[in-house]
Every structure is written in structure tokens, then in C-alpha cells.
Amino acid sequence: MKRSKAKQSRSGGPLRLVIAGGAEAVVAAEQRLITFLNDEGLPEGAAARAALLLEEVVLNALRHGAAPNVEVEAQIGADGISLVFEDSGVAFDPLAGEVAAPETGAEQPGGRGLLLIRRFSTAARYTRSPDGRNRLELRLTPG
Amino acid sequence: MQFKIVEIDAGLCRVELSGRLDAAGAEMLDAPLSAHFAAMRRAVVIDLSDVPFVGSLGIRVLISATRLLKRHGQQVALYGANAMVLDVLHTVSLDQLIPIAADEASARALVGA
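ok -> C-alpha cells follow
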């Protein structure tokens, strides 16, 4: 992981975003995340997977969780990309329970998004804080 | 997000999508694509080779638009997806709803054209 060390010393800390609004705002945040990861030297595929996770998690929180905004922190460590999402919306653990098949879930919000979150993250942890905030930590491989 | 409809013959059209099918792209594509597909009386092959990214909203648009085609008995197939997009489509088992081919010739074969 020589490369990421060198990049970290060059660019420093994590990327922090606060996302509120509709699809345009979410896509603008995706673009900032992709730029951040590209600047860190990560390949296009990893950046695209990270953008996909951001889109699924943030849209879920804003549209179905009634969160006023979602805070995102992205950073690169020795074991890959870390994405942390926090919001004050309805308590929702995207890692819990079964996800519906696509046909039955066709008009059901979130079903396919949850499948994608599980597929494209290599490790995931959800916690609900005592002060009523969702916190979702996802990791994905840098390659 | 843009699309172009190319009439191949009396029974077949190719729909060329271009751009990111992210949340914003999906919202942009939804109404116009559905309007075209509701009026379409040909089989359709959808070219994804110029679509670098697809999210779950994009998949929902593909499903709802192609459902309009199937309602009138028209066949539809997708082709040309890049590796990441293909991974996304398979993860949500989209191929159970819309056949996915590697190239245009295979997609045409799938829709019987």
C-alpha cells in the first residue's frame, strides 16, 4: 500500500460532505467523491463502486428516512476505502433482514439499493446513536 | 443522460443510451423514454455501451419503461454493458426481467429479430 501512503501524505485528510436536497445534489456529491478518489490514485472501478454506494445510501436516507441531510466522510486506509454516513432520519439498518426479489420489489423503494449496498461493500456496520442518529460504516476494496 | 432511437427495420428499433444513469440521469430519462416505449410497436434492443454507471433508480427506470413495451407484446433486450454496470444489473437480478446480451447481434437474437 505504498501508493496510498504517498497519496495520503500529499493530500492529507478525509473528504467530508453534507448532502441535502434531490437527485442533483446527490449526483454532485458523487462527482466530488469520484474526484477525491481519483486524486488519491484509485482506479475508476473503485471510484464508481464508491459512488454507487453513496447514491444508494444517501437517497434512501433523504427519500425514505426523511433525513434533513446526510453527512458523508470518505477516506482511504491501508485496507481500502472507508465511507461513513450519518443522518438524523428514521432509524433504518440497511444491513438487517432479507431483501425482496426484484420482481416483487419493482415498485418498492430501496429493495434493489439494499442489494447493491451489500454487494459492493466488503465490510459494513450500522449503529443507531442514543441521540437518534443513523451511522453506517462501509468499506470497499481499493482495486 | 440522452437517448437516441434508431429504426432498424419494420419490426426492430435500437435505443442508444448515453451518459450516467445515476439518480439525476434516471429522473431525466424516465418520462421521455416511457413516452416513447408506450407508443412503440417494435421489438427493442437497448445499447448500454455508452453508459458508464447505473444505480438503482436507473434500473427502476429501465424496468418501468420496458414494462410498457411488454404490455403491447414487444420483446426487449439489453446489451453492451461494461463490467461494473453488468455487475450491478446481475446483483439485482435484472436479467430475470430483461434479457441481457453481450452484443447487438445476440440481443437481436434474444428479441427474435
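The CA atoms of residues 90 and 96 of chain B lie 9 Å apart.
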